[in-house]
Amino acid sequence: MENCIRCKISGERVRLFDAIYEGQIEKICERCSIIENIPIIKRPDVSQLKNAEKPKSVYERMRNLSGIRTGEKKDTFFREDRLRELEKKPELEMPEKDRLNLIEHFNWEITRERRRKGLTPERLAENIRESSTAINMLEQGKVPENAEKQDSSSSF
């Protein structure tokens, strides 16, 4: 199991994140990243990905190009506030157990192996008792939003 590069706390006790620490990508706990002011590298969640893929209107694109800002305030981050929040709610630091641990470009691997074995998406779906829609979604790199909560025997 990996440990925080700074305080050496185990990844079994707290959630560890990737961060650039002393010129290398290392695992670090949130508390240490706040204390040392080290930015954490986080993967975007489903809602952030959907917002990024959503097409913008002409008005929004023109507003962005012109530099006009709306009344939207960006979240202000205060290190002391976040440290106090972690003190009050230690469960925020707990490691995530239900998170899917997918390899990078998992969809390419699925497609490559299916083709290597000479199977169509429909035949693969039939062999593993899954819907062909699910196979097509996975080969496109799409994972259902609630996939972490489902157990391995359930279907999409």
Q: How does the SSE layout of this entry go?
A:
Blueprint: E1 16-21, E2 24-29, H1 30-36, E3 40-41, H2 46-53, H3 58-66, H4 79-88, H5 106-116, H6 121-127, H7 132-139
Antiparallel strand pairs: 1-2, 1-3
| Structure class | mainly alpha
**What is the CA-atom radius of gyration, in angstroms?**
21 Å
Portion in strands: 5-15%
Number of helices: 7
Roughly what is the average pLDDT, rounded to an integer? 80
Q: Helix content range of the residues, please?
A: 25-40%
Count of distinct strands: 3
Features of this protein?
3 strands; mainly alpha; single chain; three-stranded antiparallel sheet; 156 residues; disordered C terminus; extended; 2 domains
Summary of the model, kept short:
With 156 residues, the chain is mostly helical.
Structure write-up:
There is one protein chain. With 156 residues, the chain is mainly alpha-helical. The protein has two domains: 1-54 and 78-99, no CATH class; 106-139, no CATH class. It is built from seven helices and three strands, in the order E-E-H-E-H-H-H-H-H-H. It has helices spanning 30-36, 46-53, 58-66, 79-88, 106-116, 121-127, 132-139, and strands at 16-21, 24-29, 40-41. Helix 6 crosses helix 7 (132-139). The model is unreliable at 151-156 (pLDDT under 50).
